[in-house]
């Protein structure tokens, strides 16, 4: 178990919610688990599981014995922090058949992320109740939360720590993509003082690669060369800066499961075999945003040419001020209409950086 999950109330959450804070938390599901906000009625189960020396001794901020009232207070504080986009401390639950034909939801443990907005990073912490150990609950929950975090909260880095003698937790962190970065010392309330810990971190690039999508192949004219051709495959992607009546630009957030998930980008997508870039863009804008755009309303503006690790991106960027239909997030992606001067507040793929500078000067 990592050491950092606070089970004592934190300082009050900041009053002003961050404009980039994510929408209300929708429960995350894995094969066996549901990860959801803590509820007041979880307090008794939470207290029973964490008021266990074997669990409490691995957690930095948990007193032992753990007073029953603290469970109520802590759950209330987690709800405020989550509403402010400051921290997400969540219940890990599963279904159990308790001697009856009916399955019931049981609390298995807790998992949390605490954001450091200034550093664009968050700290991961978790614990699992002793009777659920040995079933892979920790990696299943933590892997899911980590993937959610990069796609939904404004972080570029996650950090975690584990006691030097807690090899189980160190292994878990390694399994989900964390890298060890060194040694540190942290105060452990239940142990009465400082203890040595191993420090870990991960970035978006450490996430396991998403499964390949089943979309048609990219345009072959650019992609195909002799099988042994040197250099990377060139990927042709068409993208568009939609500009509304107030001069704001539409950005869409890349959803969980895609490479670079969580970064903001110009709507668009890969040019398929046999398509022109304009036709690809018209198709993508319909599929992703439910709008109709005429080819004559797409004005070529600039292009990005950027070497990613596995391919070289060639991306024409068009401007579009006229379309029909209401812009709708068809795939549930987050959308933001952004003033040109504010574009730099949104983390975007590296290929987009020169385009953003050009757009800001032009608009
Ligand atoms: N649409 C779009 N893609 C961008 C931008 N910047 C950038 O690097 N890309 C890259 O271009 C590629 C576009 O691929 P994609 O996966 O979005 O294309 P798609 O919509 O056809 O997706 P799919 O193959 O999952 O259906 C990705 O590698 C993406 O990271 C941008 O501003 N807009």
Automatic annotation (TrEMBL):
One of its GO terms (biological process) is DNA repair. Its cofactor is Mg(2+). Keywords: DNA damage, DNA repair, DNA replication, Hydrolase, Magnesium, Metal-binding, Mutator protein. Residues 1-19 have a biased composition (Low complexity). Signal peptide: none annotated. It is an enzyme of class 3 (hydrolase). It holds the Pfam family Acetyltransf_3. Residues 1-26 are annotated as: Disordered. It catalyses: 8-oxo-GTP + H2O = 8-oxo-GMP + diphosphate + H(+); 8-oxo-dGTP + H2O = 8-oxo-dGMP + diphosphate + H(+). Residues 232-361 form the Nudix hydrolase domain. Residues 33-210 form the N-acetyltransferase domain. Its EC number is 3.6.1.55. Gene3D superfamilies: 3.40.630.30, Nucleoside Triphosphate Pyrophosphohydrolase (3.90.79.10). GO terms for molecular function: 8-oxo-7,8-dihydrodeoxyguanosine triphosphate pyrophosphatase activity; 8-oxo-7,8-dihydroguanosine triphosphate pyrophosphatase activity; 8-oxo-dGDP phosphatase activity; 8-oxo-GDP phosphatase activity; acyltransferase activity, transferring groups other than amino-acyl groups; metal ion binding. It comes from the Bacteria. CDD domains: NUDIX_MutT_NudA_like. Belongs to the Nudix hydrolase family. This is 8-oxo-dGTP diphosphatase.
